[in-house]
Amino acid sequence: MIVVVSFRDNPHVEAVLEHLRRRALVVDAADFPTRAILEVRLADTAVPDLVALETVDGPVRADRIGAVWYRRERPMELDPALTDPTARLFAWSESQEALQGFWRATECFWMNPPDVDALAQRKVRQLQLAREVGLAVPPTLITNSPARAAAFLEAHRPAGVVRKAFRNLREAPRSTALVTAEDEARLDEVRFAPVTFQEFVPAELDLRVVAVEDELFATAIRSTAEHQVDYRPGLGTAELFAYRLPDDVASALLALHKRLGLAYGASDLRVTPAGEHVFLEVNPAGEFLFASERTGQPVPQAIAACLDRHDREHETRWCC
User: Fold this and answer.
1) 296: alpha, beta or left? (left if phi > 0; alpha if psi -120 to 50)
2) Which CATH superfamily is domain 203-284 in?
3) Which CATH number does the domain 139-199 belong to among 3.10.450, 3.30.1490, 1.10.287, 3.40.50?
4) Across residues 15-23, what is the average pLDDT?
5) Which of 117, 126, 125, 17 lies closest to 73, judged by CA?
6) 56, 158, 222, 273: least buried by Cβ within 10 Å?
7) Pair 284, 264: CB distance under 8 Å
8) Res 242: pLDDT
9) How many whole angstroms separate alpha carbon 132 and alpha carbon 144?
10) CA angle (218 as vertex; 214, 249 as ends), nearest 5
11) pTM of the shown model
């Protein structure tokens, strides 16, 4: 069977479920331990070993799972009757360890394994590997030193410099933006937390490139003038169309995914006015619907076909 680790009413998940041909179950980590029951029985001579999770939508046995799409895991929810802070902390810790142990007891295909997902999100590692596989990367400085930040800004002042956050937290959103004179006046605040600075890459086009194993689906984004630094806020007014990557860029992207261990990833690149393809980042759980729906590229179908294929192969091995 196929397991989708996500949550119900997720448009990305629903788009893929429509194309799955084999049995699939959506498992929401937020249901555990309040609404889902874990049962692990090992080394009991009276009964066979069992590693199973009984969810609100049905049972899941670890040894019967052939493919997992690890889309996005929500935080688990503890019973509100548990009010003591120490007891809640203990319950959360034990539940977390048990559930993560269950996932790691599934010896099957993962898109992507949780540990791989976590490592691949690290931007420092991404940029390092991107350079090693031959992708162009902007001059970058990540530092908590105001003096080093000031020197980088001065060195790259002719082209301009953008600042960006590692993660765009909902509670503290930070869009990618050009460093302004006002930012420079507050540069001493860099000492509070590291900031990523990159030389500004002018864009003829932005690219969102989705990889599903060895398949690449590239979407070009032509933004209006006010969204030349960060295309995301201007997606509603941007022109989107399917794009063919140069062979060397496509090969390098697939090599990057292989080095990171990703079966799925969504990369952002920029095509400069001179035609250079510059890598910015890869998101192991990046969105694809905005691109596939507006270009007609069959990304949900490709994800479904991949999961179906691996589940079928697992079933053949398990049955034999």
Assistant:
1) left
2) ATP-grasp fold, B domain (3.30.470.20)
3) 3.30.1490
4) 96
5) 117
6) 158
7) yes
8) 98
9) 25
10) 70
11) 0.91
